[in-house]
Amino acid sequence: MKKLDSSQIRAMYLEFFKEHGHTVEPSASLVPKDDPSLLWINSGVATMKKYFDGSVVPKNHRLTSSQKSIRTNDIENVGKTARHHTLFEMLGNFSVGDYFKEEAIKWAFELLTSPKWFGWDKDKLYMTVYPKDTDAKKFWQEAGVEPDHLVDMDDNFWDIGQGPSGPDTEIFYDRGEKYDNLAPDDPENYPGGENERYLEVWNIVFSQFNHKPDDTYEPLPRKNIDTGMGLERVTSIFEDAPTNFETDLFMPIIRKAEEFSNGKKYGVNKQDDVDFKIIADHARAITFAIGDGALPSNVGRGYVIRRLIRRAIVSAHRLGIKGNFLYKLVPVVGEIMKSYYPEVLEQKDYLAKVIHSEEKRFNETLSDGLQLLNELIDNLKESNKDTVDGKDAFKLYDTYGFPFEMTKEYLEDAGYSVDEDGFKSEMKKQKDRARNARGDDKSMGVQRDLLIEIKTPSKYVGYTQLEVKDAELLDIIVDEKLVDSVNDGVAEVIFDETPFYAEMGGQVADKGVIEDENGEVVAKVTDVQHAPNGQNLHTIDVVKPLQKGNKYYLKVDEQFHRLVENNHTATHLLDQSLRNVLGDHTQQAGSLVEPNYLRFDFTHFGSVTDEDLQKVEDLVNEQIFKAEPVTTVETDQETGKKMGAIALFDNKYGDKVRVVSAGDYSVEFCGGNHVKNTSSLGLFKIVSESGVGAGVRRIEAVTSKAAFEYLDHKEALLNKIAGQVKTSQIEEVPGKVAQLQDQIKKLQQKQEKLESKIASQQADSVFDDVKEVNGTKLITGVLNVSGMDQLRQLADTWRTKNLSDVLVLGTENSGKANLIVAVSDDKVKAGVKAGDIIKSIAKEINGGGGGRPNMAQAGGANPAGLPSAMKAAADWLENN
């Protein structure tokens, strides 16, 4: 067999399909764009959905890619099996209504067996097919596969519910007898069975049916090919590696991790190997995920990253790795992947900074988790129980990052067990919550065939003009049917040329009217979107009849359009200013450009300080006041990049691109509308800055008239405050407010002293009333104090003076009840616990609480129950 490393395999795969007429699509960001059904890009086809569902028609219907992907449904298995990963690379070739089974099968066999390409022995290959798919069997045999190397599999039918579906064929490689882990007569010892010998390397899906809502199937108007080949698996075959981890994709990371461990080596101890694998896998995943804009947090993608980092650190602890180390693996990952992903090394300092920060934080969390685990063991001892509750085990897993296996092992060493079923129940609840949070969107839509068929040419002229006098009406669509005329209601229309901008890149669509030759309004344009073949598709409210073939006067709402232009140009200035102030790691993560405001999302680790926000705002306004010309050049991508243009938000650009420059300050690829001079913006004002997700911040801002109105409103508020604090000048307001705050502080201190004095006076009479209950000295009392803080102060006084064995105090505050119980150290040793008493008496105030053995507190909604709570405390002592 040839000796190919992972980089060579990837390059060879893409080159093969490029020679067969495919366009090589770059690996997209792991963070899905405009796809709420996915937490991560989890396959090559996930980035092709827009082509398969017909929302976009690709320039080339043959596509190929090597797509980085993340799957998190089996994190627990990573490191324990040969081929489970969180991050992996999926090689794929795709046909969007072009070639089908015969070509896909013929090319797959050629790539795998031709000496020019992979050069594998064809006798090592087995193919599973759907039993009813006689065409696939025939084409495999025509390609050169022997009939006894074809295996029928009933499961070989790809179906996700409503939408495209069809049979598939899977390719297996026979790794030989040395990988036999089953007896020869074992029912799973065959290609497609659960065994280590026959390794699945490629799946080819023949998407040929539409799964309808009534669970029937109809042929798709355009049949598609979707394939997936795992780079990690194929590399293990070329390198004859027992698992994916012994390949050049993982071993350099494992070797580096060995350097940090306490003399431990990979391949010596089974548990150590699991931990090394976890570290190698998770280091890759977090590096790429953070590089694509996701950051550690407690929700969504950020939660996944945080969990992976924690799991790797726990493994490191078992290997004897001390201190923070994970961030040092980033350059190793970058070196492995640099041939196809050079951006990892380019961002290595930023990636290391993020990971290092999270590591430091978790080392403290890890100690807290161990403390909680020890407390659980202590509780088991005290209660004479032998099993930790599943909810507590899940808390260790979910909050502190403890794998269930580690909790189980730790408890077993101490002679205890854990409720595994309870843990699984909590895990299922979490997965259900995550699934519901992603919504019910299907992973692929049904083809909208009519729009795909419409290929009439249409030209957008809105960059230079906002009116077109003789636009010919080419197509009218009503209820998914082409019609020759429409009299009323809502319709979709296409003209031979149009000044109406179709929504794209965050810029909203133009609005306006359509007039007939007499100047009468026949329709209102409410929305404009791109049709699959690129035309501007206008949604209109019909006022008077429209006829296909007639010519109409199209007029964009100029004021609406100009305000949108202002805000769009402002986003370019804002983007560059953020890079200048915060650093080049910031990337646009979305935007919305409306006429009355703009919204700009960007990646950044941590909040933006007020000082930095002011710097950003000042930089934007500086460019506005300099009155820089805004120019647009249409060129090719390569020339645009040489001009220094920045590609925003992972956009896909065509052969011809528009490069928009605001002086020499901002240069970006952009297909939107912009002002001619920055001075048109008038003024730029940031309204708010906030976090909207894991590692994503949002700025909302206004320009022009909206900025003036915003500042005018703020000035009116200041004038109102000036009147309220009795100053004649706005400039005097801060000093006056500071003076008032000082007065309030002094009054509060005076009030607190008075309340403490009153509380002490009340306490004196209460403390004198000591009862004896069942051999225990008890003081109880309902006081009129300000709240729990004063109850705690009185409890401290009681403890200092050693006035009784047990103290129970209560008070009403703002319609709520507060209770506190304190127990002397001697009584705690004798088995009387404040927490037990508070739980017993809190029900009298319709509340609950807890605390330490020597002090506990509770709150409730029924202050009228406070006297009953005092009596309940005495009853508890009487009976315990």
UniProtKB/TrEMBL annotation:
GO terms for molecular function: alanine-tRNA ligase activity; aminoacyl-tRNA deacylase activity; ATP binding; catalytic activity, acting on a protein; transferase activity; tRNA binding; zinc ion binding. It is an enzyme of class 6 (ligase). It comes from the Bacteria. It catalyses: tRNA(Ala) + L-alanine + ATP = L-alanyl-tRNA(Ala) + AMP + diphosphate. Keywords: Aminoacyl-tRNA synthetase, ATP-binding, Coiled coil, Cytoplasm, Ligase, Metal-binding, Nucleotide-binding, Protein biosynthesis, RNA-binding, tRNA-binding, Zinc. One of its GO terms (biological process) is alanyl-tRNA aminoacylation. Binds 1 zinc ion per subunit. GO terms for cellular component: cytosol. Its main location: cytoplasm. InterPro entries: aa-tRNA-synth_II/BPL/LPL (IPR045864), Ala-tRNA-lgiase_IIc (IPR002318), Ala-tRNA-ligase_IIc_anticod-bd (IPR018162), Ala-tRNA-synth_IIc_core (IPR018165), Ala-tRNA-synth_IIc_N (IPR018164), Ala-tRNA_ligase (IPR050058), Ala_tRNA_ligase_euk/bac (IPR023033), DHHA1_dom (IPR003156). The keyword ATP-binding applies. Gene3D superfamilies: 2.40.30.130, 3.10.310.40, 3.30.54.20, 6.10.250.550, Bira Bifunctional Protein, Domain 2, Threonyl-trna Synthetase, Chain A, domain 2. SMART domains: tRNA_SAD. It is found in: Cytoplasm. Residues 730-764 form a coiled coil. Its EC number is 6.1.1.7. Catalyzes the attachment of alanine to tRNA(Ala) in a two-step reaction: alanine is first activated by ATP to form Ala-AMP and then transferred to the acceptor end of tRNA(Ala). Also edits incorrectly charged Ser-tRNA(Ala) and Gly-tRNA(Ala) via its editing domain. NCBIfam families: alaS. Belongs to the class-II aminoacyl-tRNA synthetase family. Consists of three domains; the N-terminal catalytic domain, the editing domain and the C-terminal C-Ala domain. The editing domain removes incorrectly charged amino acids, while the C-Ala domain, along with tRNA(Ala), serves as a bridge to cooperatively bring together the editing and aminoacylation centers thus stimulating deacylation of misacylated tRNAs. This is Alanine--tRNA ligase. It comes from Apilactobacillus bombintestini. The gene is alaS.
